[in-house]
Amino acid sequence: MTSAEHSPLTRKLSAFVALSEVELAVLERLHQRRRSFVAGRDMVLQGQSAQAAYILSAGWVCSYKLQADGTRQIVDFQVPGDFLGLRSVLLRTSDHSFEPIVDIEAAEVQTSDLLDAFARTPRLATAILWAASRDEAMVVEHLVGIGRRDADARMAHFLLELGSRLALVGIGSKEGFDCPLTQYHLADTLGLSAVHVNRVLRQLRESGLVTFRDGHVTFHDYGGLVDLAEFDPEYLDQTGPLLK
Questions:
Q1: What is this structure's pTM?
Q2: From 3.90.1150.10, 1.10.260.40, 1.10.10.10, 3.40.50.2020, which CATH number describes the 135-236 domain?
Q3: Residue-wise over 162-201: b if at least 16 C-beta within 10 A, else e?
């Protein structure tokens, strides 16, 4: 039994493909360069080139773009099992920054190792492409949320999406999940002010739908929250077309 066999990434990819011993061995090699990063210090900077990709093993990371006036837009959050900087490695320059929200553990993956893994195990490459496609679908959904959903539905949709993503790697459920995000993180993600975020969370709590308090999200009425957000998880493709 390899350590990679029980990693969040393996659990995530196993929703798409029944991994073979050879593929698990390749994943084990991709996990060899294990590193730790402290909260608040960027791992990758916007505009940086020739950097590695990372497989997040523990902790949360935010990816963001910094504006000329010093404000930032958080593009997405990475949770255990996610790749960080995969697109930037292939495009050679990062178009956004990555900042750990808490102290994290990640495996550093060099471009040459990644391309070698793809050449050796095409099914594994397809599974990683599936995971990257899910990430792109989520960014599209976030754009729709900011542009078209009201604040309550936007928040509800975001929390439901996080719960679904965490459930896939075994650290979330329809009851809730631990969440280290602050109201400022939520504001920078959802295009709201911190004051507005506070107001929306209070409204959702008073409506008996969800509570976000002391680093934990508790779903009180999961179905009601789904209805409010018009949340259809099909874009997350949680089960995937399992390849044998």
A1: 0.90
A2: 1.10.10.10
A3: bbbbbbbbebbeeebbebebebebbbbbbebeeebbeebb
